[in-house]
């Protein structure tokens, strides 16, 4: 079993994270509970940032907060000197509530509302990543009405898709995101944007995929984008101040995954951009990247109590936990795979293979199939690794199940950064039938 960050087996024979025994966490905070190894998040952030600093390249490393957005996490990102990506009014509101420096906030999204754009303009955030002509027109109009200037990046689709070790070169990218480079949409958007005195085009943005274990896709994306920027310099006298190559850096969920270190991605990206700059005789842009999962994914562990057991002779053994697709929908949504151990006996040899079932009323609520474990019962605690990205952020109240708390652990201390929802919380916005206002006149 591979342990991440500060996770280890302590002298009591229990799983320990951040210097805190996981059984103590369960006793204090209950289950299910999301536990985050803060030291590992800090280490990953430094792995990206320090490489740019060491190589003397001006850059912004923006935490893609859709992976896990809470006030405490946003504040932690600020402590580490990161910038911040948001993709909704709610994520922007969270950043503002966390007192994150607005000049380092970048706003993404393919269908930003007028109200969301007004919030971004009023807060004078650092950058809006414009995704389509509809948004560009609306943003320009709002900036004119407000007499406010806004910096933007144009999101482009460079015709490259990357996932794990594979990459695909395409012609016109079929995507809901961005302006296509190949068919002239991106150039048209640039010419429209630079006409307005209220819009400053900092440069271009792309995002080529997720859970990427290879640098090839980033190299190809840089080559294609820089080639177009060279043409735009010659034809329109436009020089890009920023090149944002997005995120998608992979993490290890299971032993099949073999990610590379943050520094390696950064080194390859810098080398390629510098080479293109020299070959094309252009100015060196500021490089932006957007790690999300790679900062928080394997820093998160979810702890559950084992509940019921069901054995189907000669077919399968099921162990049920007190959570499931309500706190981790990824296995049900796209067959995501995880590893897990019994937190109270992580070193004990497995003597059976079980499948971990969630408690939701859905046959598809299965967390892990065919997991080797020691014999387990309702006195045991299951620790599922690498749940830090898209666990809490995609959590839901299906079956009216309250969402778990989030606990940060570091240097032997544990602190709740999101409280456990109560049944009362579930009803907070409900209104009795007799109190609801009728729309009928």
TrEMBL record:
Annotated catalysed reactions: meso-2,6-diaminopimelate + H(+) = L-lysine + CO2
Cofactor: pyridoxal 5'-phosphate
Gene Ontology molecular function: any one: diaminopimelate decarboxylase activity
Record PROSITE patterns: ODR_DC_2_1, ODR_DC_2_2
Coiled-coil annotated residue ranges, if any: none
Ligand binding (substrate): 293, 330, 334, 362, 390
Enzyme Commission numbers on file: 4.1.1.20
Alphabetized UniProt keyword annotations: Amino-acid biosynthesis, Decarboxylase, Lyase, Lysine biosynthesis, Pyridoxal phosphate
BP terms from Gene Ontology: lysine biosynthetic process via diaminopimelate
Pathway noted in the entry: Amino-acid biosynthesis; L-lysine biosynthesis via DAP pathway; L-lysine from DL-2,6-diaminopimelate: step 1/1
Keyword Membrane annotated: no
TM annotation in the entry: none
Active site positions: 361 (proton donor)
Binding site for pyridoxal 5'-phosphate: 248, 290-293, 390
Enzyme kind, highest EC tier: lyase
Orn/DAP/Arg decarboxylase 2 N-terminal domain mapped to chain residues: 40-296
Family, as annotated: Belongs to the Orn/Lys/Arg decarboxylase class-II family. LysA subfamily.
NCBIfam families attached to this UniProt entry: lysA (TIGR01048)
Record's subunit section: Homodimer.
Name assigned to this protein: Diaminopimelate decarboxylase
Gene: lysA
